[in-house]
Write a structure and sequence with these properties.
It is a single chain. This protein has 220 residues and is α/β, with parallel strands linked by helices. The protein has a single domain, classed as 3-Layer(aba) Sandwich (Aminopeptidase). Strands 2-1-3-10-4-9 form a six-stranded mixed β-sheet, with helices on both faces. The protein has a two-stranded antiparallel ribbon with strand order 5-8. A two-stranded antiparallel sheet has the order 6-7.
Length: 220
């Protein structure tokens, strides 16, 4: 029997960070076997203008039965299982094109789209794998929100689709602290002692979420 197909997306580095944990997790699954489903793994551009079209093209080409987006949430202490995407972009950290957006991603679209995966069950599956996770009802107004909004618009409405926000990696926080220690501080102070989570733990959380999505899909 054919395995179900799941689209898994993440992002590359942005905002001066040398790596993005979401992209690292996606690259892991691109190279690792995953028996529960066929995974289509892609690292998306950090581009407000390109993300919606890139996602529509991926859905049109691969016809996934489910989708899971990943992104980093600086300052998040645990995995955040997102439920809601707004038709709104408002961000002060520029994308890699230098764009600072304050507009609606799809002017004719609904004001919000609700994730179609069982968010509470996904969070429970992640916690059962030994990783802290909570359900979150606001994916922000940056590219992570745009990704969830665009995916929900491109997929079949019955397809399970959602988004996980990941914490920073420990090495990233260590680097931030080291950089801050080497320069004079001025008010307002930007915090550097931020929460983090090991890449291996983030991979385990994502695997638990993917397995929960696969369980709900037909295999024929």
């Amino acid at each position: 029997m054919a395995r179900p197909r799941i689209l898994l997306t993440g992002f590359g580095p942005f905002a001066g960070l040398p790596v993005n944990p979401s992209g690292e997790v996606v690259r892991h699954f691109a190279d690792a076997p995953f028996a529960a489903a066929e995974l289509v793994c892609r690292v998306l551009p950090i581009s407000y203008r390109e993300v919606p079209g890139a996602l529509r093209a991926l859905v049109d080409e691969h016809r996934p039965q489910a989708a899971l987006g990943l992104g980093v949430a600086i300052g998040a202490p645990v995995i955040r299982v997102e439920t809601t995407a707004l038709n709104r972009a408002d961000f002060k950290v520029a994308d890699n094109d230098g764009l600072l957006a304050r507009e609606t991603p799809e002017g004719a679209g609904p004001a919000a789209r609700v994730a179609t995966y069982p968010a509470s069950e996904v969070a429970e599956a992640i916690r059962a794998a030994g990783v802290p996770a909570v359900v979150s009802h606001h994916a922000g107004t940056h590219l992570c929100n745009l990704t969830l909004y665009a995916l929900l618009g491109a997929l079949d409405p019955a397809a399970p689709c959602g988004f996980l926000h990941l914490p920073l990696l420990p090495a990233q926080v260590a680097g931030m602290i080291a950089d801050a220690a080497g320069r004079p501080q001025t008010a307002p102070f930007a915090p550097t002692d931020l929460p983090s989570m090991a890449l291996e733990t983030q991979i385990r959380a994502t695997e638990a979420a993917l397995r929960r999505l696969a369980e709900a899909l037909p295999t024929a």
